[in-house]
Amino acid sequence: MILLGFALSFSSTVFAVKVLEERSELSSFYGRVAVGILMMQDVFAVIFLSDPVPAPRTSEYR
Fold first, then answer.
1. For residues 22 and 44, what is the distance between their CA atoms, to the nearest angstrom?
2. pLDDT: which is higher, 52 or 34
């Protein structure tokens, strides 16, 4: 479920940039701020996804 959320966050960046570009608002202050925030979100998502999840510990009872 978390992976789906990150996948949607990447597509939202592309969608937002496309909409801002169509409206010629990409170079406005709020357009640059929005793209900056979305890019940082994508960077953190990549870092999170590239961090290997530790294997669960198993205990052996003898």
1. 27
2. 34
